[in-house]
Amino acid sequence: MNKIKVITIFGTRPEAIKMAPLVKELEKREEIDNKVCVTAQHREMLDQVLDLFKITPDFDLNVMKEKQSLTGITTRVLEGLKDIFEKEKPNLILVHGDTTTTFAGALAAFYNKIEIGHVEAGLRTFNKYFPFPEEMNRKLTGALTDLHFSPTISSKENLLREGVEEKSIFVTGNTVIDAMKFTVEKDYIFENHILNEIDYKNKKVIMVTAHRRENWGDGIKNICMALKNIVEENKDVEVIYLAHLNPLVRNVVLEHLDGLDRVHILPPLDTKEAHNLMNKCYMVMTDSGGLQEEAPHLGKPVILLRDVTERQEAVKAGTVKVVGTKIEDILTGAKKLINCPLEYEKMSKAINPFGDGNASARIVDSILYHYNLKENRPDEYNTL
């Protein structure tokens, strides 16, 4: 047959980080004609990743607007992809994870009767509003998907319970581990000079990110109050809070933490800076999804500032501790790691269940197998 025509679609920085190594792997395979479409749901942060991995999109919908709504993003992506699909007529589109771009991209492909591959498929919290709108974006995308690329056995089992055919599920590991092979450097020098001045050897440096929609308001405030308590009671602790540019987050962080000794409030870092900060820090406190996968790969315990997680494998493996956003619960979880070497060692040395750096190759091999260009079905990734 002719080359398999694939369009890879993503729009935010987290998607781009995880899709970049897959794009590079697709480019290597002579059986595949891959084109990249970005929606630019997030513009500046997306462009940082494209530059880092030297990816030039074939199509750029540039949908981002000031004070954009979920409805607006969805409709602009649907409209933008309609013309591209009608012209290009791909065999397969690839989307990632749980963003609005992901769901809208899958829906647009369904409307055009194009097969859909969902990277990082099958994660679930089983609560449609946590995280919002990500849980339903992921689940609705799964309902439209033809090829499910699940990172772990657990995510595959979630899909099987929902009635997905087993033959359409491929367990691959998570592509973010592939990406970190490109980004983490042993003797990295930061572009942000503040990060070069911190004593990572003698201080317990905590990297913090917290910006999810469900934590706006009291959640962010409680996180800040807990961090203030931690630095005041532990003189060997230093906090780096990467504060989202959204005023609903940043203004609260500045109100409660600005000017405190040993607390640095910085804007979000680009991917390479963030991965290398993670590599140097003592532990991570976050409400992020992706950091639950990235930090354990580097041996860094994660205190999760959410009530639920779609990455239960990390909790079971012991690399992530879910504490929520109540001040006392945050303090209990964080101080145990700060003050108990055995607890820290147990979490930092737990095996990361999310990948071995070969997820992208497994995904592409699975695509070739699906289109009868590879004889044997790829082996499943398994941490056991």
From TrEMBL:
<dbReference type="InterPro" id="IPR029767">
    <property type="entry name" value="WecB-like"/>
</dbReference>
<keyword id="KW-0413">Isomerase</keyword>
<protein>
    <recommendedName>
        <fullName>UDP-N-acetylglucosamine 2-epimerase (non-hydrolyzing)</fullName>
        <ecNumber>5.1.3.14</ecNumber>
    </recommendedName>
</protein>
<dbReference type="Pfam" id="PF02350">
    <property type="entry name" value="Epimerase_2"/>
</dbReference>
<dbReference type="GO" id="GO:0008761">
    <property type="term" value="F:UDP-N-acetylglucosamine 2-epimerase activity"/>
</dbReference>
<feature type="domain" description="UDP-N-acetylglucosamine 2-epimerase">
    <location>
        <begin position="24"/>
        <end position="367"/>
    </location>
</feature>
<dbReference type="InterPro" id="IPR003331">
    <property type="entry name" value="UDP_GlcNAc_Epimerase_2_dom"/>
</dbReference>
<comment type="similarity">
    <text>Belongs to the UDP-N-acetylglucosamine 2-epimerase family.</text>
</comment>
